[in-house]
Amino acid sequence: MALALDDLKSKKQIADRTFRGMTIAGGVTIVLILGLIAWTIASKSSLAFRTEGLSFFTERRWAPASNVYGALSFIFGTSVTALIAVVLAVPVSLGIALFTTQVAPSWLKRPIVAMTDLVAVVPSVVFGLWGIIFLAPKLVPVFTTVSGWFHGVPILGRIFGPASAGRTFMTAGLILAIMITPIITSISREVIETCPPTDRDGALALGATRWEMITGAVLTHSAGGIVGAVMLGLGRAMGETIAAALVIGSSPAITANLFSSGDSLPSVIAFEWGEATSDAKRSALIAMGLTLFVMTLIVNFAATYVVNRAMKRMRGES
Amino acid sequence: MSVVVNTSKPAPSAPLLADLSGVSARRRNKNAMMTALMGVSVAVIGILLALVLGTVVRKGWSIVAGEFPQWFTKDIQLSPRRPGPGMKAAIVGTIVATATATVIAVPLGIAGAIYLNEYGKRSLFARSLRFLTSVMAGVPSIVMGLFIYVFWVVPRGVDGLNGFSGALALACLMLPIVVRSTEEMLRLVPQNLRDASLALGATASRTTLTVVIPKAAPGIISGSLLAVARAAGETAPLIFTIGAAKHTNWNPFSGTNTSLSLQIYANAKESFPTAQERAWGAALTLIVLAFVFTFVARSLSARLSKGGES
């Protein structure tokens, strides 16, 4: 009898251990996959880094025909479009987040949240399609008008220079801005909602208007988290491939003129991979992938760190 | 006194607003202006969304409805410049690649999440796994495509371009999303349920399988569906991995394939009106697909949160 019970127990234990082992195996597999990604990308890009050295990052020429592979103009394009996207998306996202949490009556909240979430569901290639066929042709006269306003003005005249086409840094930035608005909005909203009601009521009781309450109590309280949200949006904008690839113009350039066509890291990989037959070019494109990976990694880490720290502090305070 | 009533949720709701009649005009105007700007932001995103969806529906509908049965039953026109119906190959390709990716990523992701929440908890490996999952979530989708191309497609040569390779790249993308959402859902299961089960003599694995997972199931399914919707719309991981077929191919393991997203991408670059029409049609089909998945996922998670409150 006792023997049977022991038998049952050990059977149960075996099943228990097997299950536990399976979940651990799942975890280990995930780690292995990420390791493989890092190792594969790094080892395949080593050829480019060996032959080009550091000049890979400082060379602005991209001339596969004469074996010159410089990533600088693509790094520039990625950074510029992502920055435009953030500059355009942040005020709108903050406005939406503040409107839903501070202004909107409760029946209006859910529809607004649902609407911004819907933007996130639209596949990026659809934004690209809309950008290249619908938006880009309509933007040419807009760009021309704007550049006319600033013609002759120092600095601004160069930033908003003459527009040659509808597919430009600015177009890509605009499309990316729409795409990152949902993530900045939803994280900002979460952060803002942790603001203790006593802070807001206190500000209002002192006679502040709603806007003064927002700047004095809500924004000072949520500043850290909002900065993190913005950086997560920046990371998202940098890694986004297809939408930007379709509307950026695919002609590498380093220029102050935002209304000029350019190119970015993910876009050049997507466009030129099919034609890349030499090892040197393939390695250079993979090296660009690695560069992009590292850039987004740094931004994402900084963002996660900032958000977590801000969230912790706010929870502690409230 | 203008009063905005505080409802259901205690903390986040519009606060009671004070009477502004005693406030200087400058401050009152600034308040009104900033409030109006916040409203404008909501309007801006609403208008942009309506513009995008409106264009897709208007242009997409004319080809999807105009070519009604053939759009879903015929293969893709070989020449981009010739008119002609048919997106079946891409619809099938999207289904094949996404379904295969789901079969790979979801069980793996759920296993990882169970380990994180039920076994690993705060241990060193669990913490590193959580960290690495967030790293993986940040890998740009095009890099996933490069990785699968170099690691999986190249060793197999021309035969490497098929639905399965595309699915592998999509699975890499889905994996961190599934892990993260599943872990969150498992964390919502009250600890006393586990304690009760363990106190009745159930083993840890039995507790997880018969108590914790059923309780979290709607949330896990909804998180996975969101990952599926995301994968179905992705283009970048597929460009190098799935090939460029125009004919329907249900077999993920042999022969090149295509997807709705790839068809949009390829046709959007063409200047022929016929190709562009096809792109809009594919976009409408893809958006409907993504919305359906997201809608089902959302209603499931809404049901879960209601169940949790009662």
From TrEMBL, chain A:
<dbReference type="InterPro" id="IPR011864">
    <property type="entry name" value="Phosphate_PstC"/>
</dbReference>
<feature type="domain" description="ABC transmembrane type-1">
    <location>
        <begin position="75"/>
        <end position="303"/>
    </location>
</feature>
<feature type="transmembrane region" description="Helical">
    <location>
        <begin position="284"/>
        <end position="307"/>
    </location>
</feature>
<dbReference type="Pfam" id="PF00528">
    <property type="entry name" value="BPD_transp_1"/>
</dbReference>
<dbReference type="InterPro" id="IPR035906">
    <property type="entry name" value="MetI-like_sf"/>
</dbReference>
<keyword id="KW-0592">Phosphate transport</keyword>
<protein>
    <submittedName>
        <fullName>Unannotated protein</fullName>
    </submittedName>
</protein>
<feature type="transmembrane region" description="Helical">
    <location>
        <begin position="112"/>
        <end position="133"/>
    </location>
</feature>
<keyword id="KW-0812">Transmembrane</keyword>
<dbReference type="InterPro" id="IPR051124">
    <property type="entry name" value="Phosphate_Transport_Permease"/>
</dbReference>
<dbReference type="GO" id="GO:0006817">
    <property type="term" value="P:phosphate ion transport"/>
</dbReference>
<feature type="transmembrane region" description="Helical">
    <location>
        <begin position="21"/>
        <end position="42"/>
    </location>
</feature>
<feature type="transmembrane region" description="Helical">
    <location>
        <begin position="169"/>
        <end position="187"/>
    </location>
</feature>
<dbReference type="InterPro" id="IPR000515">
    <property type="entry name" value="MetI-like"/>
</dbReference>
<comment type="similarity">
    <text>Belongs to the binding-protein-dependent transport system permease family. CysTW subfamily.</text>
</comment>
<feature type="transmembrane region" description="Helical">
    <location>
        <begin position="213"/>
        <end position="234"/>
    </location>
</feature>
<dbReference type="GO" id="GO:0005886">
    <property type="term" value="C:plasma membrane"/>
</dbReference>
<keyword id="KW-1003">Cell membrane</keyword>
<keyword id="KW-1133">Transmembrane helix</keyword>
<feature type="transmembrane region" description="Helical">
    <location>
        <begin position="139"/>
        <end position="157"/>
    </location>
</feature>
<dbReference type="GO" id="GO:0005315">
    <property type="term" value="F:phosphate transmembrane transporter activity"/>
</dbReference>
<feature type="transmembrane region" description="Helical">
    <location>
        <begin position="74"/>
        <end position="100"/>
    </location>
</feature>
UniProtKB/TrEMBL annotation, chain B:
<dbReference type="Pfam" id="PF00528">
    <property type="entry name" value="BPD_transp_1"/>
</dbReference>
<comment type="similarity">
    <text>Belongs to the binding-protein-dependent transport system permease family. CysTW subfamily.</text>
</comment>
<dbReference type="InterPro" id="IPR005672">
    <property type="entry name" value="Phosphate_PstA"/>
</dbReference>
<dbReference type="InterPro" id="IPR035906">
    <property type="entry name" value="MetI-like_sf"/>
</dbReference>
<keyword id="KW-0812">Transmembrane</keyword>
<dbReference type="InterPro" id="IPR000515">
    <property type="entry name" value="MetI-like"/>
</dbReference>
<dbReference type="GO" id="GO:0005886">
    <property type="term" value="C:plasma membrane"/>
</dbReference>
<dbReference type="GO" id="GO:0035435">
    <property type="term" value="P:phosphate ion transmembrane transport"/>
</dbReference>
<protein>
    <submittedName>
        <fullName>Unannotated protein</fullName>
    </submittedName>
</protein>
<dbReference type="InterPro" id="IPR051408">
    <property type="entry name" value="Phosphate_transprt_permease"/>
</dbReference>
<feature type="transmembrane region" description="Helical">
    <location>
        <begin position="36"/>
        <end position="57"/>
    </location>
</feature>
<feature type="transmembrane region" description="Helical">
    <location>
        <begin position="89"/>
        <end position="116"/>
    </location>
</feature>
<keyword id="KW-0813">Transport</keyword>
<keyword id="KW-0592">Phosphate transport</keyword>
<keyword id="KW-1003">Cell membrane</keyword>
<keyword id="KW-1133">Transmembrane helix</keyword>
<dbReference type="GO" id="GO:0005315">
    <property type="term" value="F:phosphate transmembrane transporter activity"/>
</dbReference>
<feature type="domain" description="ABC transmembrane type-1">
    <location>
        <begin position="91"/>
        <end position="297"/>
    </location>
</feature>
<feature type="transmembrane region" description="Helical">
    <location>
        <begin position="279"/>
        <end position="300"/>
    </location>
</feature>
<feature type="transmembrane region" description="Helical">
    <location>
        <begin position="128"/>
        <end position="154"/>
    </location>
</feature>
<feature type="transmembrane region" description="Helical">
    <location>
        <begin position="160"/>
        <end position="179"/>
    </location>
</feature>
<keyword id="KW-0472">Membrane</keyword>
